[in-house]
Amino acid sequence: MIPVIMSGGSGTRLWPLSRKNKPKQFLRLFGDKSLFQNTLTRLFDLSDLEAPIVVCNESHRFMVAEQLQEITIPESDILLEPCAKNTAPAITLAALQALERGDDPLLLVLAADHLIQDVELFHTAIEQAQKQAETGKLVTFGIVPTMPHTGYGYIQARVCGEVSAVSAFVEKPDELTAQGYMDSGHYYWNSGMFMFKASSIIAELERFTPEIIRCCRAALTASQTDLDFIRIEVADFEGCPADSLDYAVMEKTDKAVVIPLDAGWSDVGSWSSLWENQNQDEQQNVLVGDVLVHDVKDAYIHSEHRLVTVLGLENVVVVETPDAVMVADKSRVEQIKTVVEALSDTERSEATIHRKCYRPWGYYDGIDIGKRFQVKRLCVNPGHSLSLQMHHHRAEHWVVVVGTAEVTCDETVSLVSENESIFIPLGSKHRLHNPGRVPLEIIEVQSGNYLGEDDIVRFDDEYNRVK
Predict the structure, then answer these.
(1) pTM of this prediction?
(2) Per residue in 254-274, pLDDT tens?
(3) Number of domains in the chain
(4) 418 phi, psi to nearest 5 deg
């Protein structure tokens, strides 16, 4: 069995923690592992498990690789989607890639950003699904509803409370309809998790949506291997229809089977669901970070950077990050997308990037910015290097605060130790390398008439970011 991890989401409903450049699946919201890592580690006790296939956005590729290494999964196929095309093309790519390994494996398709609290019950459901998938069935996992939720699609089962053929997939209902679904016992929340043989899903895709198969097969055939990644060819994939697997296959096939799952599942799709799934104090508050409250009830308050105090409020969400603060009534957090859209419309960087930005060599943290200057703190991991690069519009001054830096500036290579500095003139070819065994920390002061991240000309890069 091959786990297929779908990791292309942007998670804007958890802004400002989750943003386009580091969405919720890579955040550590429940303990010391990210949702992406927990998706894989909860499978560790299963037998006959092969290396996973991860389908992700190209801009997240280094986060995926790093987080896989952190949980000791060094070998995996990481497929880089050149653009978002919904779940059917992504799963098609994974199924075709799985068949390249040989045989005809089972695929366990999971979203990277779900929470499952009862792992033992989840494993039991997987075992039930294996028996069905081995016979050629296309299995979906239906979540036993705990409330008449209007934010999920539903699956109608022919038989109540057990493994059953699927009668229908239905769209998100209104509250009255959702209550009827719940009362009948024949409806489950649609989790978006699946299991099937690679050949079984390919056959049904060929039957109902041959254009998806054609485009994905061409794109995968023309793909290129880049370090740990498989770059899907752009032109063929861009021409692929953008459909969900439900719409492309599951709503049309006569092979669909639903497995009931009652294992504490959540898609962690909003601040209210995050509040529901974390330990609450006596006042039903969830407090994360440096938080002080008085006379506060039913609240989710999260501090990342500084002291946050809240007085005399109920049913609120307060989230503080180094560059943004969000305050909302908990009953209206589903509307956070409107805030993100407004930020995007005005081209505010807070819509997509964090103050701390992760790179394959480490990260940088934007400390201060003015009209013609910018100050950053860079942390370069041991043995890693920035690209050999130059800037047309800015000069840089580097001060080493921790570790030793090997600095290339044009034809000169220098070692710069703690409390020493070096100047990089505008237009000079330069590179920063950490030759040591501890993280290298640099204070970088940029000065010039343009300080954007796109003012980088790369000449050489060990992460293949040279265009």
Answers:
(1) 0.89
(2) 999 999 999 999 999 899 999
(3) 3
(4) -55, 140
Structure tokens at 230: 């498989």
Cβ atoms 226, 233 nearer than 8 A: no
What are the structure tokens assigned to 368, written together? Answer: 């201060």
Structural domain range at position 423: 356-460
Instruction: List the structure tokens of 193.
Output: 């998790």
- Distance (Å, whole) CA 379 – CA 215: 41
Helix (H, G, I), strand (E, B) or coil at 220: helix
Helix, strand, coil shares of the chain, percent, nearest 5, are: 25, 35, 40
Do 84 and 131 belong to one domain?
A: yes
Q: Which residues of the chain have pLDDT under 70?
A: 466-467
Q: Domain ends where: 244, 266, 288?
A: 266
| Angle ∠(376,377,380) on CA atoms, nearest 5 | 125
Same domain, 154 and 179: yes
Rounded alpha-carbon distances, angstroms, from residue 344 to 131, 220, 331, 353, 395: 47, 33, 24, 11, 29
pLDDT digits (tens, 9 = 90+) for 192-215: 999 999 999 999 999 999 999 999
